[in-house]
Structures are given as structure tokens and as C-alpha cells.
Amino acid sequence: MQSATRQGEEDGGGGNAVPTLPFVRLSNISKSFGSVSVLEDVSFEIRPGEVVGLLGENGAGKSTLMKIVSGEHAPDGGRVEIEGSEVQLASVGEGIARGISFVHQELSVVGALSVAENLSLGDLPRNRMGFVDRSRMRELASERLARIGAQAIRPEQETGLLRAGEQQLVEIARAAARNPKLLILDEPTSSLTPREVESFIQYVETARSAGTAIIFITHRLDEAIRLCDRILVLRNGEIVSEKPSSEVTRDGIISDMTGKPAMFEYARTPEVHDRTVLSLRSVGDGDLIEDITLDVAEGEILGLFGLVGAGRTELLETIFGARRMAAGRMEFCGERAQFAKPTEAMTRGMAIVPEGRKTAGILPQHSVRSNMSISSLGSMSPGGIVDRTREASQSSGYRDSLSIRMADDRQLIGTLSGGNQQKVLFARALMTNPKLLLLDEPTHGVDVGAKSEIYEIISNAADQGLAVIMASSEIPEIMALCDRVAVLSLGRLVGIVDRAALSEQRLLSLAFEGHV
Amino acid sequence: MTTLAKAGAPALRSLLRHREASVLIMLLAIAVFLAFSNEYFLSSRNLLNVGRQASVVAIVALGQALVIIARGIDLSVGSVIGVSAVVAAVVLQATGIQSLGLLVGLLTGLVCGIANGLMVTRLRINPFIATLGMLSVARGIALLVTGGIPVMFTGWAEFLGAGRIWQIPVSFILMLILALAVHILATRHRLGREIYAIGDNPKAARLAGIDLKKTRLFVFGFCGCLAGLGGVILAGNLASADPNLGMGYELDVIAAVILGGTALNGGRGSIIGVVIGAMLMALLNNAFVLLGISAYWQVVTKGLVIIIAVGIDGLQRREDDE
Q1: Interface probe with B: pick from A357, A377, A416, A421, most Cβ of B within 10 Å
Q2: Residues 408-467 of A with CB under 8 A from B
Q3: Which of A99, A393, A410, A440 is least buried, going by the fewest C-beta atoms within 10 A?
Q4: How far apart are alpha carbons A323 and A284 in whole angstroms?
């Protein structure tokens, strides 16, 4: 698999007359967070002037690998060498000092400052009086923007008012201004216009011939093939293929990216679902999703698949009333429904297990029991006063039926493992006796054992007649559970795949639709 | 003790206990010191006076505690005390109906509180700024209504503010009853549980189906209403409603809430702690009077107490983070 690099080492010349010494060499890197292993035995190297594409499904370990290269994370095992000597980068700052710049997917520009200020942040030019030299700062900014072909952006503009793509360019210009020896770009072109992409590609070519090594994380396969010398595919924390881009094909990459058979076998007997619980007609939020039409029936698990930014979370939020439904029509249990807030959706019989357990899920200063009952207090509080006996018995019921492992349900929820916390959130949702259960990345950051237990919970819920919509970026999970899968791309529904036609290839090629 | 503490994890329980216990110990230490340094302190007359002083701070602090637990803050309570007292007194003077005067006092507070709540929930103004604005608006209205001159306020209000039942100040009894009611609301009622949840993690609480706007509106309205009651009691005690009544009270009230162990960033706090905190503030005031220390020092000390209480909270949290 890694023969391509080895060869490169021997001939030393290559197409662009690259020097023999790799700029960065990783050997046998492993990394885990808690009990979740994210990278296993990853080895890879990049030389000056080389452009490498790093591809993989969401959660394959791409970002973690790049964070190790840039010094944000320390590896648990393995060696990192920069320019031939072993290093242990303690921080991003050290990485930058060594010539490594990482442009993250999440923007880190300061919105309230001007473009020029952002581009000089941390190193503002000063005049003799010690004040900021504004004209020099503007000059520098124009120079830095022109370098990546973004001269259309005016330096004095307030950064927060720019389009996401323009902000991204400012971010790239900032990284490029440091004259890095290695530039890591996470989805750099995802929000650029075709014209911006062209200028950006020109910059990449220039930087390459100047000897900068570049690593690209991208979902745009064609672009990766066109731009990169080498394509590296990560799957479940391991490198599964590494080939010169002249030898790869779009389909080949997709099949490399998909992988391991599901650990939880699909074992549902798809009954005839005829009672429609939820139906959406041309639903949109006026911003990130539009024209979504689909139905979910009683006892059915509908998967919601798509790449990052496809609009899965936004769709769930719109259904649940957490986001304004700007267009279209929704019917829930045969009645017209449009919720101004989640409270209304819950009273009508919806419940959600949201994405982001820590930020949007748990109540960290509350006990496990209070976390479970918080959505059901209405039904267990005759006259407003909470019936604590009932609360305790409900809690212990779900503790047993969902096998939530803890010493006492009065302990703080934070003392539980991620998987058990997630089960508590399932208990919270199920306790309200919903007709429709919305799940957003239900097994994110959960270890393998808890994962299959959660699959069982979901599957049982559907068997009892619940309609389930499950948004997930993990294909094996979708394959293991879903009766049908709706695929979103760039905020639009690009297809609904039936169980019989369900394959990883099919899902991915649909998800990539619209991504050039 | 809240359900949270009783039903919560041992770690939290010990923390809260620790917090209430430390305030209680401070309270007792000052009491013992005063008992030895001034013979008058332990006289029933003085103690009852302290109780009376504590009760207005405590009553308003009950509402403030719920606001802070829900991750808000109400800086306007001092001015709301003033405007409620003045409006109640003016209505009483105009109509002569005792019950109406009292009711209008509470209603004025409620209206101010709901205005605060609407600014926070509908206009999404930061509670600090919204209530800071109200602080000025309410005080201004109190001055406008009276032309700056105190209005006589007797009758039922005087009974609430200065009356006694078996030697015990009526306001103190009222405070105990209200504290019990709010304690039950906070720990046993659905609404109280939702207030804690909102303060703990608003985003999660919203997705768990809690109506954030309604709940926040309630806490601000409730706090305003209790400030209105505080105004009636305070003015009744003096038999006169001064438009400057309650000036600077927000400091005592917030200090009592924080001293009682309520976390400024929400989700944590107990009503018993708040009452102890209010007692401590009243005792501090009393100490300055008894020891004959300049009232100016009293002002300095109050500020220091609030800073130290919040500082201790911050230090504890930093340990939590690490």
C-alpha cells in the first residue's frame, strides 16, 4: 500500500525534482480518546513541494491525524519526525515555529476586525511611536491577499461581513503569509465560488513549485485527483490506500473510503409500514435546507445521510421547531403542524436525542435521574408538584431496560461514561412516549460496546411502533439500522434509497452529488 | 437544601453543604463577636430588629435567586422597590382603599418584572443591560409620580412593615412563609426544576422541551412582584413612601443570593442559603450600628463582601475545571 512513497524515496527526482528528505515523516502513529481508538499504526510522509490529498469518511481520523502533525494533539504512540529529526510538538505554536500551518474547516477569523487587521493579527506593524501603522498594514494585507489570488477582497472591510468563502480565503491568506513549509488545508474549497477555486489552485501550484508541502483534506474527489500528487485514504483510523493520483479513480476512492462490514447486523423484518407519522412537503428553512419532501411511517427507521454541511441537523431542527420552517408544509400524525418552539413539538409527540451530548444534551449539574425526567415532568407532576416516587420508579425502569450502568441514579450525570450518558438521553426522549423519535449522530463519541447497545435501543423502539429519523455520518450504522435512507447534499434531498437498493457506494455517490 | 442537593450526587451535596455551612459559620461568628462586644446585641428588641431588616432583603432575594439560577440577573430591584411603594401609596391616598393600595404595589412590581422579562426574551437584550435600564426608568417614574416628595403610607402597609404578632415582626413571619413556599417551588415543583435546568444548560433544556421564554418571563415577573412587596413593607415600616426608597438595595439582595451559594452562571443554588445570606447582610449592618463604626465603612464593606463571595466562587470553580 505504501510502496508509492518508498519508490519516491529511491528515485528522489519525481516530476517536480523534489529533494529526498521528507519534511514530515510519521511512523506508526496511534491515538485514542478515552476508550475510542481514533488512529492505529498510521505511517505517512510528505516532501517539500508535494501535494497530498487526505480523504476519508467523517470520523475516519483525518482531522486527528492532521492535529498531530500540527502539534495540537500529542500521539499516544509512534514517532513524528520533521526534516529528519524526531520531535515532540507541545503546541500549535511550536508547530507554526517549525513551519507548519493548519487552516481549519471551522473559521477562526475575528469577525469584528477588518481583513487587514486579521491578516496582521499577532504581528501588527508599528510605526516609530509604537502605534499601529495602518497604511503599512493595508499594504501587507493587499500583498497577502494577492498572493492567493484573492485581490478582490478589500483589506479595510469588516471580516464578519464577508461571505463564508471570502472569510475562508482570508484565513488561507493568513496561513500562507507565514511562508509555511507545510500547509494543511481542511476543506479549503467547500465554500468558494468556481472562480475563487481557480485562483486558489493557481496559488497552490505556485506554492508547490516554491517547495511548500501541502496536505489537502477534501470531499471533492475530482478536485483532489486533479490537484494532488498523491491520494491517501483513511478508514477507521487506518490508511487503507495510498496511490499517485494518476492511478486512482473516483469509484476506486469511494470503495476505499467505505469499508468494514457493520458490526450490528440488520435484523429487522421490514413490516408493511402504512401509517404515515410525518410527512414533509417542500420544506425549507430559507437558509441552509430547501425543498425537502419525505414521509416516515410508524415503525420505520429512516436514515438521514450526507456529508458535513449537507443539512441533516438543520432538517431535524426544522422538524422539531428549533429552527424556523420558512417554506413548505409539514403534517404530523395526520394533522398540519408547524412548531414555533421545541416545547410544542414535544407536546405533540416528538422527541429528540440531539447532536453534541455536552453542549446540547446533558444538564451537567443535574443527577442522572433529573436528566432523565426533565422532559416528562408535566406528566408526573399532578398539580405541579413532582411526584418523586413516580420519578424514581420511571428512572429505575429505564435504567434497567436500557441497561444504563451506574451506582446510583442520584449521581451527577458527568460521572457516567459517554455511552451511558447517551443512553440517559435516550431514556429522556423515550420517557415522553413519543410517536416520532429524532436522532442526530446517536452514537457519536461512544465506544463500540455501547454502540451496539444503542443500536438495539433504536431497533426496539421502532419495533414498538415508533417512527425514527436517524441522522448519521457513519455508513455502517445506517446500513445496520435503516429501512430507508434519505440522502442530503448541500441542503437538498438528492435521493431516497430503499433497503433493497442500499449500498455504501450508492449512498456515497449520492452524497457527493453537487460537489464538484 | 434543594432536591438537587438531596437527590444529587454526593460531590454536589457536599459542595452545597459546604457553601451553606461556611456562610452559617460566618453568621454565627459575627453573632458571637457582637454578643461579647456589645451588651445590647442579644436583647430581644435588637434581634427582632435584625430579623426585620433581614426580611425585606430576604424576600426580594428569593425572587433574585430564581432569576440568577435561571442564568439571569435583575439589577432593577432597588428601583422597583421604590416605584412600587410610591405608586401604592399614591393610589391608597387617592382611593383610601387599603387592599387596593397593597395590590397596586405588588402589581407595579410585577409589571416592571414582566417588562424586564420581555426585554430579555423578546428583544434578546442581555439581562444585565435590560435591568440596568429598568433601574433608571423605575427610579425616574417614582420621582415623577411624587415630584420627589415622600407620600404618607399607613394602614395595612404599616402593619406589614412595622407590625408584630406575639412580639415577632410581621415582615419576618411573612418572609419565612414565602421562603418555605419558594423553597417548595424550587425543589418540588415542575417549574422550579425547569428553572434549574435552564440555568444549567439552556440549549439542552430547550431541546428537552422546556419553554425558555415562558420560564424566563416567570422568574423576572416573580422577582419584580417580590420587589413590589418589599417596597410596600419597607415604606410601611417608615409609614412613608419615599421615591428614593430602596436605592442601592440591589447590592444587598445580590450579595445575599451569592453569599448563600447561588452560582452566578446559573443552575445551582438553594433557598435556605439565600435566607442565611440575607441574615448575614442584616447582621453586618447591625454590627456597624452597634459598634459605632462610620456608615461610610458600611458601604465599603458591603462591596467587599460581594467581591469576596464571588471570588471564592470563582476559585472553587477553577478547582472544578482542573
Answers
A1: A377
A2: 410-412, 415, 428, 432
A3: A393
A4: 10
In the predicted model, what is the mean pLDDT of residues B187-214? 92
Q: Could you tell me if A148 and A281 lie in one domain?
A: no
Q: How confident is the model at residue B111 (pLDDT cuts 50, 70, 90)?
A: very high
**Which region holds residue A349: left if phi is over 0, alpha if psi is between -120 and 50, else beta?**
left
Q: What is the mean pLDDT of chain A?
A: 83
Task: Examine the domain organization and report whether A281 and A249 are in the same domain.
Answer: no
Q: How far is A326 from chain B (nearest CA, A)?
A: 20
Beta-strand ranges (E) seen in A306-367 are 327-332, 335-336, 350-353
Closest CA–CA distance from residue A312 to any residue of chain B (Å): 16
pLDDT, position B211: 92
- Whether residue A110 lies inside any domain: the answer is yes
Residue B216: pLDDT band by 50, 70, 90 thresholds? very high
Give chain A's domain count: 2
Q: What is the nearest CA distance from A396 to chain B, expressed in angstroms?
A: 14
Handedness of CA A426, A429, A431, A436 (dihedral sign): negative
> Between chains, do B205 and A374 touch, taking CB under 8 Å as contact?
yes
Chain A CB contacts of B209 under 8 Å are 342-343, 345-347, 351, 375, 432
How is A120-178 classified by DSSP, letter by letter? HTTS--B-TTSSB-HHHHHHHHHHHHHHTT-TTS-TTSBGGGS-HHHHHHHHHHHHHHT
Beta strands (DSSP E) in chain B are 151-152, 164-165, 168-169, 240-241
In this prediction, residues B265-292 reach a mean pLDDT of: 86
Q: Which residues of A touch B211 (CB under 8 A)?
A: 341, 343
State which residues form the domain around A297.
Answer: 276-511
Q: Does domain B44-321 have CATH number 1.10.3470?
A: yes
Q: Which chain A residues contact residue B188 at CB under 8 A?
A: 385-386, 388
Which residues in chain B have Cβ-Cβ distances shorter than 8 Å to A363? Answer: 196-197, 200-201, 204-205, 208, 267
A257, A291, A319 — which closes off a domain?
A257
* Residue with cell string 424550587: B186
Alpha-carbon distance A367 to nearest alpha carbon in chain B (angstroms):
5
Q: Phi and psi of A102, rounded to 5°?
A: -120, 115
Query: Would the CB atoms of B9 and A410 count as touching at under 8 Å?
Result: yes
Of the pLDDT bands very low, low, confident and very high (cuts 50, 70, 90), residue A11 is very low
Q: Write out A93-120 in H/E/C secondary structure.
A: HHHHHCCEEEECCCCCCCCCCEHHHHHH
A71 in any annotated domain: yes
Let me know whether A8 and A60 are in one domain: yes
The predicted complex's ipTM stands at 0.82
Q: Does A347 touch chain B (CB under 8 A)?
A: yes
- Using the Cβ of A136 and the Cβ atoms of chain B, whether some distance falls under 8 Å is answered with no
- The rounded distance, in Å, linking the Cα atoms of A146 and A170 is 11
Helix (H) or strand (E) holding B96: none
Per-residue pLDDT tens digits for A309-337: 788 889 999 999 999 898 889 999 888 98
Task: Quote the minimal CA–CA distance from B64 to chain A in Å.
Answer: 20
The domain locations on chain B are 44-321
- Give the per-residue pLDDT at B141: 94
Same domain, A249 and A298: no
**Chain A neighbors of B184, CB-CB under 8 A:** 385
A420 and A492 inside one domain: yes
Same domain, A222 and A318: no
Model pLDDT, residue B104: 92
Q: What CATH number did the domain enclosing A373 receive?
A: 3.40.50.300
In a domain, A91, yes or no: yes
Tens-digit pLDDT profile for residues A347-361: 999 999 998 888 889
* A161, part of any domain: yes
Percent of chain A residues past pLDDT 90, beyond the cut: 16
Residue A196 has pLDDT above 80, yes or no: no
Q: Could you tell me where the DSSP H helices lie in A339-447?
A: 342-348, 368-373, 388-401, 418-431
